[in-house]
Design goal:
By secondary structure, the protein is of the alpha/beta class. 42% of the residues lie in helices and 22% in strands. Strand 2, helix 3 and strand 3 form a beta-alpha-beta unit. Helix 7 packs antiparallel against helix 8. Bound molecules: S-adenosylmethionine.
């Protein structure tokens, strides 16, 4: 089973590079929550293990991570990477969240990074996860908020056209690129206490890593984005041309979309 962005060598490279650019955000969140051995954690939509592997290292010697991933290709890669890193505290489940059942002991942490943007019925999926938390356990989600906040300077119509088109593409297929703001109310409705709601953002010039991160996404998916947003071939050409110019322009600046950490805690009693 694939997901909106598919399984391809380009997407695998994008996920790896994404961890290089944004890994600090997740590590800061785990630091704030005090994640440590012997916690038991669930990584939902684990992909190739960009969150799972550092989490498993952090949980040594007695903690463990259950990694849930729907794609068999990604699950195999995660397995190989865990083996290479000699991490024996990772348990891999190749299944969809929708089918996942857990009869083991409760999780101290359930982490979902960049997953709910792909999932339509967020509340019913979270409802499945909440009973899997131990009392006092955390449900932590990292996802986009208000994608329109992403900006390229100097401003240009070519960029202004592509951002709403990307929003349409995701909203049609899943929770969308503005999902984070909806999460605190859903968590509260499911009986969790919202204990963290923190924005993360980065900015940089045409040669920065964060600009390259955006480039890996837009260059690979521009055709699907253009189709969802009814962009004309000329608008797509303008976008590609402007991108190349901005990459070399020393005064260009890119501001990333905000990625929120949203954390709900299950009451202890
Ligand atoms: C953008 S990737 C993020 C991977 C990883 N969380 C990270 O931050 O590097 C989203 C992942 O979620 C997985 N996924 C999407 N929907 C899922 C579902 N319903 N059940 C399980 N996994 C899912 C995809 O297969 C993909 O590997």
């Amino acid at each position: 089973m694939s997901y909106l962005l598919g399984v391809s060598p380009q997407e695998i490279r994008r996920l790896e590079f994404q961890e290089k650019v944004w890994g600090w955000m997740t590590q800061n969140l785990l630091d704030r929550l005090g994640v440590r051995s012997p916690w038991r954690c669930l990584d939902v939509g684990a992909g190739i293990g960009c969150v799972t592997l550092p989490l498993a290292r952090r949980l040594k010697p007695k903690g463990e991570v259950v990694a849930l991933e729907q794609s068999a290709v990604y699950a195999d890669l995660l397995h190989d990477r865990a083996k290479k890193a000699d991490l024996k505290n990772i348990f891999l489940i190749n299944d969809r969240l929708e089918n996942f059942k857990w009869r083991g002991p409760g999780f101290d942490l359930i982490l979902c990074r960049w997953v709910f943007l792909f999932i339509k019925d967020i509340e019913s999926r979270l409802k499945r996860l909440v009973p899997m938390l131990s009392p006092g356990g955390y449900l932590a989600i990292e996802d986009y908020h208000d994608y329109r906040g992403m900006t390229f300077y100097p401003e240009s119509p070519a960029f202004e056209r592509v951002i709403p088109a990307a929003q349409k593409w995701f909203a049609k297929n899943g929770g969308g690129l503005d999902v984070a703001g909806r999460l605190p109310a859903i968590m509260a409705k499911l009986g969790l206490r919202v204990v963290d709601f923190r924005p993360n953002v980065q900015a940089g010039g045409g040669r920065s890593e964060v600009f390259r991160w955006a480039e890996l996404f837009f260059s690979h998916y521009i055709d699907s984005i253009a189709q969802a947003g009814n962009m004309t071939p000329r608008e797509v050409r303008d976008f590609k041309k402007t991108w190349l110019l901005r990459k070399k322009d020393p005064v260009s600046r890119f501001v990333s979309p905000i990625i929120f950490d949203v954390v709900g805690q299950k009451p202890r009693r």
